[in-house]
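Q: what does this look like with adenosine-5'-triphosphate bound?
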Amino acid sequence: MPTDGAGDSLWQACVDQLAQELSEQQFNTWIKPLTAQVTDDLSRMTVFVANRFKLDWIRAQYASKISAMAEKIYGQSVHVELALAPREAPVRSAPVAVMAETDVPRDVAGLGEDAASAAFKNRLNSGLTFDTLVEGTANRMARAAAMHVSGMPGHLYNPLFIYGGVGLGKTHLMHAVGNRLLADRPDSKVLYIHAEQFVSDVVKAYQRKTFDEFKERYHSLDLLLIDDVQFFANKDRTQEEFFNAFEALLAKKSHIVMTSDTYPKGLADIHERLVSRFDSGLTVAIEPPELEMRVAILINKARAESAEMPEEVAFFVAKNVRSNVRELEGALRKILAYSRFNQKEISIALAREALRDLLSIQNRQISVENIQKTVADYYKIKVADMYSKKRPASIARPRQIAMYLAKELTQKSLPEIGELFGGRDHTTVLHAVRKISGERQQLTELNQQLHVLEQTLKG
Ligand SMILES: Nc1ncnc2c1ncn2[C@@H]1O[C@H](COP(=O)(O)OP(=O)(O)OP(=O)(O)O)[C@@H](O)[C@H]1O
């Protein structure tokens, strides 16, 4: 039940926002498999859920969130209703851009559907190709190795192990290898699979006593693309089966490409014999993209959506969204949706408006130095007094207030804060935090001062 046009953008923007707010597991389990249909006037959104159990859960946990999000993005109220997905509805889950792995919803918590469907046999997403992958210093080596593998599987770099942080393009690169190989040699047997799905396949084979089929399926491949192998941790039976598949595939010169969030030796709770095999081909990292690459990605992705993003806007966004490509895509979606709904050209002012939540979250990243300066200004003492050993109350008290705010508004630990206040012991910081928070409850004036300071610091 796909949506299209502005409705599609609205739904995509909601999904994207949820991807940022929820944990990966929550997102993959509950949101990713959803589909939606939005009326032409954007006043109603019907979200389709696979079964009754999930429907109740989505209603309780996420429906009001989705509704508030849609309203915020669109600027007017959007009535959100939930419905059971018609059985024959095409599988069109969360938009490709925010999908980490495959078109098939994953059975993360054992609540979902059997993901193996004939329609998605190789589970490749045809949109994730080398052509749509922007090259930069951050992924140059991984991309070159992946291209090599797709041109000559079974030769060099086997296995190819690609690692890096979330949303940096590991999955994209894997699909690109599979798609390129199939374009060149359509008869090749290629399978893309997320490690969790592999675990689930092992469990099913075990329960149903169908290991022969399992082996036939995995051991006969020409190219196995397996994503996020860190999920094998502590799954002994899966590790054993993967080891067998690995040996069988390498023996017949089939190629294996793997991804993980860390390099092989950094993997926890995976048998040493597997780890050493992971590392026996080529191990390459993907780094977070540098500024120019982020700009290029934004401009390319905007074009792919038939929109033109001026370079200055791309620079503005790229400077503000630094962590990974998935977030960059999220920012782009918001800008495109905002521009379409408001029928305005894409400009820095529009981007600033569309990303105001995201930018304000970043502004909220307050440093201890900033707190020390703000508090010193407010109480008219020198910033140096924050680190000094002086003890008069006119200095000691603002210092304690600054320590309290440092604990409240930053992620720093007590010892780290102590260090930043002239190498003080963590017990001194703890004492200050307890004292000020206790007094805050009692003294209205102090509470007001703290409130003003907090507002100033949060911008
Ligand atoms: N260099 C790039 N050029 C274009 N798009 C990219 C690039 N890198 C990543 N992307 C896009 O960013 C999104 C996230 O990438 P991907 O899912 O491949 O990340 P990942 O590293 O596998 O993350 P995770 O570990 O969370 O699964 C995808 O939509 C992907 O197409």
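The pocket of adenosine-5'-triphosphate is lined by residues 97, 100, 128, 132-134, 139, 164, 166-172, 297, 325-326, 329 (CB under 6 Å). The chain is about 55% helix and 10% strand.
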